[in-house]
Amino acid sequence: MMPSAPTTSSIPTLSAVTSRAGIPQARRVVVKVGSSSISGANSAQLPMLVDALAAVHGRGTQIVLVSSGAIATGLPYLKLDGRPGDLATKQAAAAVGQNVLIFRYQESLDRFRIVAGQVLLTAGDLENPDTRRNARRAMERLLELRILPIVNENDTVATEEIKFGDNDELAARVARLIDADLLLLLSDVDALYTKPPWLEGSQRIDEVAFDDELADVEFGGIGAAGVGTGGARTKVAAAKIAAAAGTPVLLAATAQVNEALGGRAIGTWFEAGRPERAAG
């Protein structure tokens, strides 16, 4: 049975999902995947990711995918070897790459007869009350119609002044916007560690309490250099945004997406607090 339409109230609510074990019962999940997890040497992970999302979609859960990768996907078509430094070339790569990326997702989703809906946002869209309401209304309707929204930053028109900075923050703000029960942040690393996992003495952090400032954590990069823009610090910052709005967060490796969505004891769990302000 299809879940009933969610409330359209602008006041976020505390998620009913309070632990990994409750993830299979989530009504609405936002999944974020980084560029390095679905491009280049890891491009074969995209169909695997779609398999996992389709399985969750099939059990009635509403899924939103926040996907990086437009710029990285567009680079070969512009005959560029690395991520450009100037904004105009980034915008050009995004314009080409977004088209190719959404085609790849839809081609993979066709196996399950699931239709994707492309949603491109800038930070300004979620800061302005009118455009934020419009974005929320569009997302709600897509989910009611059983469409799988694929969200990315609108890099083709975004300037440095109105950029989110990274898609981890975008995913957290989308989770707030639609009152998600869970935000799943996928990357190349399987959890948050006390220091970069390749350093001696690094230890995996199983759970982060809502009020834990992680003062003893030594932050380092997450993901492949030259492709993605995020890292452990950006993921923690995003987790805190979502958790403050009442949405718990799980940080895990992209290769573990099935286990993560199945409620297995993997990754790092960020406890949600009680929401303090309007979503978005």
Automatic annotation (TrEMBL):
Main location: cytoplasm
GO biological processes: L-proline biosynthetic process
Binding site for ATP: 32, 187-188
Highest taxon of the lineage: Bacteria
Location relative to the cell: Cytoplasm
Principal EC category: transferase
A Pfam family that the UniProt record links to this protein: AA_kinase
Record SUPFAM superfamilies: Carbamate kinase-like
GO MF, any single term: glutamate 5-kinase activity
Amino-acid positions noted as binding substrate in the UniProt annotation, renumbered to this chain: 68, 155, 167
Function: Catalyzes the transfer of a phosphate group to glutamate to form L-glutamate 5-phosphate.
Record family assignment: Belongs to the glutamate 5-kinase family.
Protein name (database record): Glutamate 5-kinase
Organism: Homoserinimonas aerilata
Classification lineage: Bacteria, Bacillati, Actinomycetota, Actinomycetes, Micrococcales
